[in-house]
Design brief:
Blueprint (H helix, E strand, L loop, with lengths): L2 E4 L9 H11 L3 H13 L6 H6 L5 H10 L15 H10 L3 E6 L3 H9 L6 E4 H4 L6 H11 L6 E5 L2 H10 L3 E5 L2 H6 L4 H6 L2 E3 L5 H9 L1
Parallel strand pairs: 1-2, 1-4, 2-3, 4-5, 5-6
Helix pairs in contact: 1-2
Pfam families: Hydrolase
GO molecular function: hydrolase activity
Protein name: Hydrolase
Length: 215
């Protein structure tokens, strides 16, 4: 195991403030949008469909720009990180593992993540690459930045359709993280069980996986 690549939302960061800010922008109660996110997750749809249920026909990219112009754009700080992120990434780098963070986020999110000075060798987003998960081209880029062969690269994420399945199809090792709506809902799905090389409840478990792999 030479490189571990991490998804962002509900793997590295909590999505609480993300969805709360959207609810405030769309002028709906936060619990309403949260419930709609859960509903689209249960149906296997993209989470952006929750926004379209609130405002049919919404142009999400245009709304991002409008939020930025109004001074209500994306924000990330230390409080958005899960507690196990810094310790786990630090421990992995001490083991000599290349640590990459690559998920479906905007260029702005990439800038914010890099400003947190995380113990990672590279932080990049789909918005910066111009290609998003689950497209195979995204995982082609992952393989490029991993700087090792696919079978020595592990992709970690909570979303089966965006993370586990396409990463596996690209030849990467995969770890499904039981965290966030997608992680909990699909944790015991037979296809996830069959395709994920590992199923974990915390990023802290990755050091043990690396150690066992190398033994």
């Amino acid at each position: 195991m030479e490189t571990i690549v991490f998804d962002v939302g509900e793997t590295i960061t909590r999505d609480d403030r993300y969805w709360a800010s959207w609810a405030d922008w769309l002028d709906v109660p936060r619990h309403t949008l949260s419930a709609l996110v859960g509903a689209v997750v249960a149906r296997g749809l993209d989470n952006a469909e929750a926004l379209r249920l609130v405002r049919p026909g919404i142009d999400v990219a245009a709304e991002y720009q409008a939020r930025d112009a109004a001074g209500r754009g994306e924000d990330l700080d230390e409080s958005d990180l899960y507690d196990d992120v810094r310790p786990a990434l630090t421990a992995l780098r001490r083991l000599g593992v290349r640590v990459v963070i690559a998920g479906n986020q905007t260029p702005r999110a990439g800038q914010l993540l890099r400003s947190l000075d995380l113990p990672a060798d590279l932080i990049v987003t789909s918005g910066e690459w111009g290609v998003a998960k689950p497209q195979p081209a995204f995982f082609d880029r992952v393989i490029e930045v991993a700087q090792t062969v696919p079978e020595a690269t592990l992709y970690v994420g909570d979303h089966p359709a965006n993370d586990v399945f396409p990463a596996k199809a690209a030849g990467l090792r995969t770890a499904h993280l039981r965290r966030g709506p997608w992680g909990y809902l699909w944790a015991d799905d037979p296809e996830v069980v069959a395709q994920a090389d590992w199923r974990i409840d915390s990023l802290a478990q990755l050091t043990g996986i690396v150690g066992a792999w190398r033994a």
